[in-house]
Amino acid sequence: MQPKDEIPSTSLGAGGTGRRFLQPADLKRLQNLQFAAKLIVEGYFQGKHRSPYYDFSSEFADYRPYTPGDEIRAIDWRAFARTDRFYIKLYRKETDMNCCVLVDKSNSMAFRGSSPLTKLEYANFLAAALSYLMIMQGDKTGLALCDDKMSGFVPAGGTMRTLQQMLVTLERATPGGPTKLAEGLRVLFSLLKRKGLLVVISDFLDDTSEVFSALSMFAHKGFAILLFHVLTDDEMNLPLVSNALFQDMESPASVSVEPEPIRAAYQEEMRGFIAEMESNAKARRMHYQLATTAEPYTRALEAYLTARARL
Amino acid sequence: MFSLLNAGLWPWIAAASVPLVIHLLTRRTRRRMDLPTVKFLQRTLAHQSRIFRWRHWLLLALRTLAIAALVVAFLRPALLSPLAAQGFERSGVVIVLDVSESMAYSSGGVSSLAKAKSQALSVLQDLRAGDHANIVFCGAQPTSAQPSPTTDIAALQTSVRSMEATDERADAASAINVAVEQLGKTNSRAKRLYIISDFQRTNWSDVKFDAVPADARVLFVSVDSTARQNAGLTGLKIRPSTPCVGEPLTVQAEVFNSSSSPRTVPVTFTLSDPSAPLGTGSRNFSDSVQLAPYSSGNVSLPLTFDAPQRMECTATLPQDNLAGDNTRRLVIDLGRMATVLLITDEDTNATTSAAYYLVRALHPDPGSVAGFRVLPVHSNAVNNPMLKAADAVMVCNAPSMPPVQLEVLAKYAVSGGSLVWFLYGDRVAEQIKGLSAQLPKSEPAPLQVEGIANVQSRAKGFVTLSEARYESKLLKAFRDLTASDLGHIKFYKFSLTSEVQPRAELLLKFEDGTAAAVRCGEGSGNLLLLNMSPAPSWSDLARQQIFLPLMHEFLKGILAKDSGALEAFPGGTASTTIEPTSATLTCVDPLGQVVPVTMDKTTGSIVIDPARRAGIYHLTAGAQEVAALAVNPHPDESDLRSIDPRELESQREKSRSYLTGSTGNDPDVSDLDKGTPIWHYLLIFAIAALFAEQAVGRVGVRSRKGKTA
Prior knowledge:
The structure holds two protein chains of two kinds. Chain A is 41% helix and 20% strand. By secondary structure, chain A is of the alpha/beta class. In chain A, the strands form three sheets. In chain A, strands 5-4-3-6-7-10 form a six-stranded mixed beta sheet, sandwiched between helices. Chain A is elongated and about 80 Å long. Chain A starts with 23 loop residues before the first helix and ends with a helix. The relative contact order of chain A is 0.16. Residues 661-665 and 703-709 of chain B have low confidence and may be disordered. Chain A binds chain B through residues 107-108, 111, 203, 205, 234-235, 238-239, 241-251, 253-257, 261-262, 264-266, 268-270, 272-273, and chain B through 26, 30-45, 47-48, 52, 55, 697, 701-705, 709. Strand 8 (244-247) of chain A pairs parallel with strand 2 of chain B, so a sheet runs across the interface.
């Protein structure tokens, strides 16, 4: 049962459609990022519309039936002559967008709480799905892992081989080290020569000003930045225990407390943190998306597509 | 300072440690959990109020206090009573237990006496070993259960358990005196006097507690403070008091309504003789009387007897909560002559004495029952039983009467007696003055004697009566006679008197204006002063035909107001007069038991002291019944209105009195003995602590912006 003042999980926007797609718990069983990423992406687009990621291009890709609103010039009249039906010719869209997904793999990302996935597992699935989607759209995609340093990097590429490398890197990622996201971003900034889309998946439990200071460098360079703020329900609402000694995962600090009397105040504190993140992102024209580990990836993918469309 | 009335539960105080144990166990079993957002948790805690930071300890303290208070409340703590003896000092306790008739009042199947006994037993049970105690049973003649206070508490408890309600009135003042005497016999400094009673206003309102030692604590234990409903017979009289054969007489019953609402009370008269001439031809006669709250009313039964006889008349009321006053008895003795006690120092056989002529005038035919039975007695030999047995008292030339007798005679008159005083003889002026001093200040003697007038030396040599008040019932019989019948009497000497007081009735007046006969009421009795003497040296009264009827009418006139001899009540003395006899007298009480009786062989006055039971006492000389005496409950016992013991406490004017009771909100006497119970305050405290615990649990959590959550 959800506590009264608990931050609503519907804040992700999944709403009643949350169960239409694969849940994180289901993905956990798959253990294969490539297959999971494919399931996530195709599951998301299934039934949305009949023309998922095709567009007009010089490279023919497929036919589809004519629907009212399509341009007349796109009708394949030869096909009409043979079949007496209107078909539209589809071509693979050409792009030169470079994307980079930065995944935070610090110790704090190993927190699972009462969720089926740790934050890092969730981040990995999300990164895999995004990478799959980007490559399937023809974008070049790269991957970076960081904790207190850059601990993994896959240069951007648009082939399935690149995707394979990225997924292997993600699967081998283990949490470790304190969160120093700003450091990772600065290292990454020096590695990315061409502007594009930067996706950061992290719990952002770092110095916020430092993080946004580092992100500002990307913004100045013309990067579109999409921030996925991964948190668990237990982090936002405190675990449902009567009394506990809470140990910090990246420092020796600990707190003994009865969660119930201060739950509301803590939730407000966390809401303040999230609001601060969101306002900082908006102020720098960055896309910010809160993602809890109990939620499906729907909103995350929608956020990506929204950001992608604006580029 | 404190005592525990339920100390057996003391081990349960360990329950107060339960919150602490739970707290410690919770600390040990606390879960260790990882949380990346500890810094936010720390920040949240840093924003909380100081109350919140101490909240754990506050809650622990409140929970511990609540449980401790709850457990202690069940231990029934009490503030130590100042009644309790200090340290190892032993107490001296005297219990005055009211056993009067009103204590037989029963409500809900429990009598007032049963409640009182329960309280007394409770007091005795709480005494410590070595404490001295005694019981004073408060009846008409209060007595103590033991000669002196004893440590044998079991014997006292047995006495209390065996005690039954008597038919007697409570003589509260005497009971207090006996109790004070018993308290004086205890050597303890911690003296306590328990007074356990229904505190009838009629018995307790005038009681003084001045005799109670200042260091003694007095506890008033009221066993029936609620309004009690009762109807009782408070009087049964016959008029005239000495009826004659063929003379119409009236039996009058007085009924008292001791309740707060008006009621109609049926009264049934029953005569012991089935041939009695009741109007209905039966032995029973019933009538009803309507009574206002706390007021009296009368029901009368007219009778006429045509033959000398002695019979018992009983008046009864329907049964109610107090049975003792529902029956009242009367002996109608048509063969009995009214007895006149003639107090004189003269020789009744000397023809020159006034007493000689008075005796013969009052009982002219010694062989018959007509007239009055005269008992001459020397002024030195008068005693109370004689007075109680007499229907009227005459004083004629008693110069050797001791002054103390004046007080006795004054009390006799005030309490309902009929007193005739001849203003004749030596020291009469001094005696009337002394009598007046003993009478109530508002009702002194109607005149004073200032000397003796001898008119023999005057031209006529005598004076006559010039004025008579024929409207008076004492002279009404002479109204149809010519005035000369009274005016023919020649008086050679008479006493000079002062002005007659306006409240007195001037019956006769000499021609020089001096009062010759004056009647006035004294209390509930009558006083008739006759300024004349039948002695030949004073008048020719004894030679006049009118002398005999005049004396008879005077006596009948002052007897008519009362029923003759004073009423007898249970626990007091009952007396009458018979013809002196040498036969052995036997007296049988209403229960058929023989009781001791004394007789004055000279005067024939019979005394039963005490007459414990209400009912008819039969006196037999040999095989013949010579008299019957009715003993009835005291009318004061029918009025069940109580006096608030606080009034008695205020009368005492000392602060060491305590009030309690078996009903209402008063504390139990046993608890009072042990102290003032405070368990209910602890219960309230425990509830308040639990509320505070809830409040502290909710208050004190602040939001991030410093607002109270």
